[in-house]
Amino acid sequence: MKLFPPPWLAAIAFAASGMAHAQPPAAEHHHYGAAPAADPVVRAYQQANDRMHADMAIGFTGDADVDFMRGMIPHHQGAIDMARVALEHGKDPEVRKLAREVIAAQQKEIRKMREWLAARGK
């Protein structure tokens, strides 16, 4: 004899599975409780974040390799854009050094990904 969970338990499990992927409302998502968007640093990070997420909304092909490369290019560009904000507004020498390293590394990887995609006509 098969035993099935009570309907209320199945409903809780179903609801919980969807909650794991829930996103906060747009206003909360962008501010993270930080300074208002009038702040030029916050605004610059928000713009970089918004651009990255919009550009990562690729049309998936089902080819894991192609989809990875196409999705990672805007992800890496987002890191570059954030590093540029840190260089423009930040003061800590360690953060500035890391930001420069991030820019160099991510640009190099973006070139490799674009070359890989071009070699495959993607």
UniProtKB/TrEMBL annotation:
Residues 65-121 form the DUF305 domain. Transmembrane segments: none annotated. Pfam families: DUF305. Residues 1-22 form the signal peptide. Keywords: Signal. Coiled coil: none annotated. Gene3D superfamilies: 1.20.1260.10. This is DUF305 domain-containing protein. It comes from Comamonas endophytica.
